[in-house]
Amino acid sequence: MAEPVEIDRAAVRWTRQDEALPLLVLLHGYGSDERDLFSLVPFLPEGVTVASLPAPLGAPWPMPGRSWYPIDELERRDPASVTAAAEAVLRWLDAEAADAPSIALLGFSQGASVALQTAREDPARIAAVVNLSGYAAPGDLPGDAALRERRTPVFWGRGSRDDVIPPALIVHTAQWLPEHSELTGRVYPGLTHSVSEEELADVRRFLDGWLDGLQAPAPEDPLDG
User: Fold this and answer.
1) What does pTM read for this prediction?
2) Which string of b and e fits 65-95 if b means at least 16 CB within 10 Å?
3) Any idea where the Phospholipase/carboxylesterase/thioesterase domain is (predicted)?
4) What is the pLDDT along the chain (225 residues), one digit of tens a residue?
5) Cα→Cα distances 52→28, 172, 213, 216, Å
6) φ, ψ for residue 143 (rounded to 5)?
7) Among 2, 3, 29, residue whose Cα is nearest residue 131
8) What superfamily would CATH give domain 9-215?
9) Of 13, 24, 80, 112, which is the most exposed, with the fewest CB atoms less than 10 Å away?
10) How many Å apart are CA 63 and CA 46, to the nearest integer?
11) What is the C-alpha separation between 114 and 135, in angstroms, rounded?
């Protein structure tokens, strides 16, 4: 079992703090920090609160920035360290976004794996996940069956020339996501371990769909009346 970790709440970057708006949480990649994905705000939908979180661990010297879990645990079958990071995100949500009407997560690389793990830990809480150049952590979690039933919308985008994520994890994710989510997936020819404007346009459309779904009227219960 991994040791609990915590998000530095003072370091979180916000576009605004408005609990009446849907919340989009950004989870950066290994060796980066909360300032990185915050630069994507101009590409993201309006009408949401955006919060960019710092990972709880420092990356080992001489790597700059921060990490969500030790990089040498990338291919472990035991997802305990990824789960510890996801639990830290959920505790942060408890403290800072308990009344948000809907929550989506957008992560890159390590942050993407934590975003998926957070949805697996609490399927009812996370309405949508954007997985950029990331993967689904191996291993089973108690929430996986509920996630499979709920069919949470997930966008998975990756580059055809991304050689950072091990092939075995890509194969695992390609099998796991369609079984556990409503998957929108795309591979971008020539893209490395990075994000392109083309991919960001696809992300914007996906997130617009999340927001449109919040405005749609609830279906009538056939048992009413």
Assistant:
1) 0.92
2) bbbbbeeeebeeeebebbbbbbbbbeebbee
3) 17-210
4) 678 899 999 999 999 988 899 999 999 999 999 999 999 999 999 999 999 999 999 988 778 899 999 877 565 656 889 999 999 999 999 999 999 999 999 999 999 999 999 999 999 999 999 999 999 999 999 999 999 999 999 999 999 999 999 999 999 999 999 999 999 999 999 999 999 999 999 999 999 999 999 976 555 544 454
5) 8, 28, 23, 27
6) -85, -5
7) 29
8) Alpha/Beta hydrolase fold, catalytic domain (3.40.50.1820)
9) 80
10) 34
11) 9
Give the tokens for residue 87.
Answer: 């639990």
Look-up of token digits 């108690």: 142
